[in-house]
Automatic annotation (TrEMBL):
UniProt source species: Oxobacter pfennigii
Tree of life domain: Bacteria
Official protein name in the record: VWA domain containing CoxE-like protein
Amino acid sequence: MDSLTKNIIEFADVLRIAGVRLSTSEVIDSITSLRYIDILDKKSVKTALSSCMAKGEEERNIFSEAFDKFFIPLDERLQYLESKSAKIEEIRAQITQEAAELKFNGAPINLPDELKEVYYNLPMEEKHSIKAFIEKSFSGMEGLAGPRLLMENMVKGKLNNLRQNLSSDDYKDWKSYENALSDAGLIAGEVIEDIQNKDSLLYKNIGDIKEEEIPKVIMLIKQIAEKLRRNIRRRELMVKRKSKPDLRRTIRDSLSTGGVLFNIKYKAKSRKKNKLLVLCDVSASMYRFSGFAMQFILGMHMNSSIADTYIFSEFAEHINITAAENPNSFERKIKESKAWRKGTNIYNALDYILNSRFVRLNSSTIVIILSDAKTLDAANASDSLKLLDGKVKRIIWLNPLSEKEWSKIPSLVNFIRYSTMLDCSNIERLAKACSMI
């Protein structure tokens, strides 16, 4: 095998690890294409390989980054790989060391590698909480085998649940570190990191988004919302295919084709649609986040009845969300309201929802709260939230603050008891949270 062919095969490994779907035949076509160009012309080589290896805009972006990092002087590449490998080994050692702190009867808890990394990525408060749970719940049972097994299973369950709340920029499964030990994995990891940095709006803190970046954010939201809609339609189609055939409707439909069963009809399962009730905090620090979040929620309405939407600050006010075409128009409607730039009082908003004769709450209602939980009268707000939780199907709280900052808000602990609070500090996390509604 000549050196050029070997390099192309290694480059293909980089692309696969970075997320490009690449078949063996496409790699062979790539090698063949180089026979018809000047291989000393780097631009021509890049164009030829891209035409064979990259499909779609996302893969072309990955290809371009990978090509520029892979095809460099050999001594530069070796130096880079050596330093990067040392850094990865250091991270793996830290992950193993921190996981070893979880002990029972003086011996480390037996955790799979991927859960060790989940524990490594947790905030310090959450780590202390898990340690305290082990000490308090299993004190005096150190010599018994049964409690140890029970405790390990409970800790694994806790970490598995926490893993669902870690976004892709916080968490990479352990396999990514195993891949990173190879030369291809090291380069692919750098490619993915650079692409994420370039596509920084997806991972940028929503509070730091500038005025001039809003049009790009709106476009990004529309693209992600469309993907969410396609996923929903795909799931609905799969559910439909699992339904039983409706023979009566099928035979009736086949009369137009002389009795040939061209189109099989299925029995539709009766599903009670959920009703969304949205509460948006429109204080000065919250209105922009609320505008972004509402675009995702609107994309979910195909599964739900038309939502009632209320904005609130010191008091609650009904708003017509269907007339808001984008976050900018949503902002304009907020600024025109009497609630604009007032102090935040979640208790008043919840009290209005609970006691207004215009608001109907039942077991099919899902309440979505958009707020950072910084409020006046937090004690009464917590009591009202508890009461609301008993009247509706579920309460989902979308919080624009990073989970690492939640410990700075004392009242937030009580809110978490009666709602599912999700970290929505950037667009990627917000999209993931809205897909769960």
